[in-house]
Amino acid sequence: MPRSILCVLLAVSLGGCSLWRDRVSNNRTVVEDATIDAASDLTNSDTQVRITVPQGWRIVRNNSRGSSDIYATYEPQELYVSVLSESNPVLDQFDIEDNAEQYRWLIEQELDRFEGETRTNLTALAGNPAVQYELRGVVDGVPVVYLHTTVQGRDRYYQVVGWTTESSYQANQNTLKAIINSFRGV
Q1: DSSP assignments along 33-78, one per residue
Q2: pLDDT in tens, 130-174
Q3: Which residue, of 4, 14, 150, 164, has the fewest CB within 10 Å?
Q4: Which long-range contacts does 119-124 make (Cβ < 8 Å, 24+ apart)?
């Protein structure tokens, strides 16, 4: 199957990856259900995915990221984390590198200006093959950094994404990595 068809299928199934732009443009409509009082596991029982977030984070349920299995924020530091899972036979026709490339391409298309990406050394997450990139760009005049991880599960692909402003990234990089590294999926 041609790569262009994969791009279309990913775009339709993900509804776009404008994670930062959604945060900015839809901030007033986000319903934040609960502040986490202690480090806690956040689980989506429908898709059986889980991450652990530190105290003070909020799980956001009724949000503009309807495609997210889990979406959590820590507003004081402008930190955001999302988990998305996909079970699609078309995705299985491509390897993890191809799928990771297409997921990143979708994010790049939503940036006002893409400034580059750097692959990290992560090769596995929760015992599954994984590919991780740090992506940098600008959205609505704000420099942002995404830490994007693609995980190949038994019967689905996962995206575990943390993002923040460029100015907050250095101080909060370890927190985002810890949350991403806590990911568990079926």
Answers
A1: EEE-SSSEEEEETTTTEEEEE-TT-EEE-SSS-TT-SEEEEEGGGT
A2: 999 999 999 999 999 999 999 998 888 899 999 999 999 999 999
A3: 4
A4: 120/147, 122/149
Look up tokens 């250095």; give the residue. Answer: 170
> pLDDT tens digits, residue range 6-61?
333 333 334 334 444 444 333 323 334 667 776 788 888 888 899 999 999 998 87
Question: What is the separation, in whole angstroms, between the first and last Cα of the chain?
Answer: 27
180: closest CA among 165, 159, 155, 166? 159
Domains and CATH numbers, the chain: 3-185 (3.40.1000.10)
Maximum distance among all Cα pairs of the chain, rounded to whole angstroms = 48
Q: pTM, whole model, 2 decimals?
A: 0.80
